[in-house]
Amino acid sequence: MKSYIKRGVIFLAASLVVFCVLFVLIQTDVINAYYSQILMVICINIILALSTNLIINYTGQLTLGHSAFMAIGAYASAFIQMNTGLPFFLSLLCGSVVAAVFGFLIGLPTLRLKGDYLAITTLGFCQIVVVAIQNIDALGGAQGLAGIPPKTTFAWVFFSMIATIAILYNIVHANQGRAMISVREDEIAAEAMGIDTTRYKIMSFTTGAFFAGYAGGLYAFLMMFIDPNSFNFLKSIDFVIYVVLGGTGGFVGCIASTSILTLLPEVLRFLGDLRMVIYPLLLIVIMILRVKNIRVTSFLRRKSGAAKPKERGEDHAAA
Amino acid sequence: MPLLDIENITIKFGGLTAVSDFSISMEENDLFGLIGPNGAGKTTVFNMLTGVYAPTSGKIVFNGESIQGIQPHQITKKKISRTFQNIRLMKNLSVMDNIKVSYAYQAHYSLVSSIFRLPSYFRQEEEIEKKSLDLLKIFGLLELKNEKACNLPYGQQRRLEIARALATQPKLLLLDEPAAGMNPQETQNLMDLIQWIRREFKIAILLIEHDMKLVMGVCENIVVLDYGKIIAQGPPDEIKTNKKVIEAYLGEEAADA
Ligand SMILES: Nc1ncnc2c1ncn2[C@@H]1O[C@H](COP(=O)(O)OP(=O)(O)OP(=O)(O)O)[C@@H](O)[C@H]1O
Ligand SMILES: [Mg+2]
């Protein structure tokens, strides 16, 4: 318990420092409006990637429809806020809860499917959500929903990201997380050890949907305009790429890969059309390096001199 | 009232009757052996007992409750636990976490207390930690607690699997060929371990094993299965001399010897 509190305090202090530095840089225009926008998108993407990570890496369920929950959260929170004038945070929460309810309802039947079947079903669900929104006039239909008030600030996205990291970390390093990991490792053995695998799959899926919905809300109030097509399954694939590049389990890898891959297309913008060639090429190179197990995290660990002989297995050890 | 009462369970896979009319009855703290040639249906009996398969017909009563057809995780909660013929550890988890998974269903703190790290989280996690360490110590795996399960030598993996099954606090422990792949010394240690577990934890054990020395050495009652049917049942001495058994099973070994 003591070591947990110690680590918690260090984590909070570190995030405060990072926040202050970035905040000052933004205020003094060292990071211009364009890049501060990208910074906020990175934070939002990290929330999405971590929630995908919970489902794919920790629970071992391949979902290709995570952007659907982002869309549901985005539309629900924007719609609620614009029609009722509910405070920002409450509308974000409403959006997340709606996404979580959908996650639960979709998870209930589909999580009985395994591997490829689950992937295809979630992908189908994602497209259904997109098409459904396109046909709901109250949500702006295919034209998209405009006029969302700009309420998302850097402080909001940053601390939402920190809260997401803390909450997901706490889940993963607890009984529930252990159960989810055991589902990934060996479902039959997990059942034999008394773990209700269906229950934990649904718990993971619903939690993931909740955070995706929350991130969707942040996104809507940042962009002030959302259209259904930007949430199609290609967006879900982005999250899968972040997660796969991040490596099994760990949070640090996932956060690093998301930041890099969100930033990369912007940095490569000077290349013009070549960008569309270079970006995928870089992806392939990074993927090969990953397979050779040159991990960002292990590199950092070695650098930081934290020479604890940590096994990968310890990533999941309880706090 | 017996602890376990199996009455005429039969299971068919398509046209194949893997087990037919299987009946046994075990008291608390009994140690039974289940033997038979390859493909006789031994593992299938375990799978029916643990809810992996539902019997096509028949009745399984455990602890006074009918348990056939309920899900594996529910059966574990009713205090039957097992190991697997082809070891099924959580390969990428540490030895310690493998044990902790078994305590997961016994912990009763909610997702909310995990998220906000409420006192109930710390209290129960501490307890789980302590119990897991105790168990690892008993099984001589304490030094290896941070090792990934897949890095353990084969014999240790078998031990860990038994430890993990015990962590669910069963009243009936099902061991599926625990000595497979062990050398004679390891098998001897395993025999001692099984007898010690039975005494210490006061549980009933049903053991599938091909190693005759082990089975005859520790079990007080042996059930012999051939082509899904029980062909003999009794104490080791009787089984050793049973004609049908020698024909069906020991015959191969007797011929070898
Ligand atoms: N799910 C299944 N579907 C079809 N047939 C099965 C299934 N499970 C087991 N069988 C068949 O049932 C029979 C008994 O298998 P079982 O695994 O119980 O044998 P066993 O006695 O454990 O053998 P071994 O000593 O080789 O482990 C075999 O013929 C097997 O092919
Ligand atoms: Mg078998």
TrEMBL record, chain A:
<dbReference type="InterPro" id="IPR001851">
    <property type="entry name" value="ABC_transp_permease"/>
</dbReference>
<dbReference type="InterPro" id="IPR043428">
    <property type="entry name" value="LivM-like"/>
</dbReference>
<protein>
    <submittedName>
        <fullName>Branched-chain amino acid ABC transporter permease</fullName>
    </submittedName>
</protein>
<feature type="transmembrane region" description="Helical">
    <location>
        <begin position="9"/>
        <end position="28"/>
    </location>
</feature>
<dbReference type="GO" id="GO:0015658">
    <property type="term" value="F:branched-chain amino acid transmembrane transporter activity"/>
</dbReference>
<dbReference type="Pfam" id="PF02653">
    <property type="entry name" value="BPD_transp_2"/>
</dbReference>
<feature type="transmembrane region" description="Helical">
    <location>
        <begin position="34"/>
        <end position="56"/>
    </location>
</feature>
<dbReference type="GO" id="GO:0005886">
    <property type="term" value="C:plasma membrane"/>
</dbReference>
<feature type="transmembrane region" description="Helical">
    <location>
        <begin position="153"/>
        <end position="172"/>
    </location>
</feature>
<keyword id="KW-1003">Cell membrane</keyword>
<feature type="transmembrane region" description="Helical">
    <location>
        <begin position="276"/>
        <end position="294"/>
    </location>
</feature>
<keyword id="KW-0812">Transmembrane</keyword>
<feature type="transmembrane region" description="Helical">
    <location>
        <begin position="202"/>
        <end position="227"/>
    </location>
</feature>
<keyword id="KW-1133">Transmembrane helix</keyword>
<feature type="transmembrane region" description="Helical">
    <location>
        <begin position="239"/>
        <end position="264"/>
    </location>
</feature>
<feature type="transmembrane region" description="Helical">
    <location>
        <begin position="115"/>
        <end position="133"/>
    </location>
</feature>
<feature type="transmembrane region" description="Helical">
    <location>
        <begin position="88"/>
        <end position="108"/>
    </location>
</feature>
<feature type="transmembrane region" description="Helical">
    <location>
        <begin position="63"/>
        <end position="82"/>
    </location>
</feature>
<keyword id="KW-0472">Membrane</keyword>
TrEMBL record, chain B:
<dbReference type="GO" id="GO:1903806">
    <property type="term" value="P:L-isoleucine import across plasma membrane"/>
</dbReference>
<dbReference type="GO" id="GO:0015192">
    <property type="term" value="F:L-phenylalanine transmembrane transporter activity"/>
</dbReference>
<dbReference type="GO" id="GO:0005304">
    <property type="term" value="F:L-valine transmembrane transporter activity"/>
</dbReference>
<dbReference type="Pfam" id="PF12399">
    <property type="entry name" value="BCA_ABC_TP_C"/>
</dbReference>
<keyword id="KW-0378">Hydrolase</keyword>
<dbReference type="GO" id="GO:0005886">
    <property type="term" value="C:plasma membrane"/>
</dbReference>
<dbReference type="GO" id="GO:0016887">
    <property type="term" value="F:ATP hydrolysis activity"/>
</dbReference>
<dbReference type="GO" id="GO:0042941">
    <property type="term" value="P:D-alanine transmembrane transport"/>
</dbReference>
<keyword id="KW-0067">ATP-binding</keyword>
<dbReference type="Pfam" id="PF00005">
    <property type="entry name" value="ABC_tran"/>
</dbReference>
<dbReference type="InterPro" id="IPR003593">
    <property type="entry name" value="AAA+_ATPase"/>
</dbReference>
<keyword id="KW-0547">Nucleotide-binding</keyword>
<dbReference type="InterPro" id="IPR003439">
    <property type="entry name" value="ABC_transporter-like_ATP-bd"/>
</dbReference>
<protein>
    <submittedName>
        <fullName>ABC transporter ATP-binding protein</fullName>
        <ecNumber>3.6.3.-</ecNumber>
    </submittedName>
</protein>
<dbReference type="GO" id="GO:1903805">
    <property type="term" value="P:L-valine import across plasma membrane"/>
</dbReference>
<dbReference type="InterPro" id="IPR051120">
    <property type="entry name" value="ABC_AA/LPS_Transport"/>
</dbReference>
<dbReference type="InterPro" id="IPR032823">
    <property type="entry name" value="BCA_ABC_TP_C"/>
</dbReference>
<keyword id="KW-0813">Transport</keyword>
<dbReference type="GO" id="GO:0015808">
    <property type="term" value="P:L-alanine transport"/>
</dbReference>
<feature type="domain" description="ABC transporter">
    <location>
        <begin position="4"/>
        <end position="252"/>
    </location>
</feature>
<dbReference type="GO" id="GO:0015188">
    <property type="term" value="F:L-isoleucine transmembrane transporter activity"/>
</dbReference>
<dbReference type="InterPro" id="IPR027417">
    <property type="entry name" value="P-loop_NTPase"/>
</dbReference>
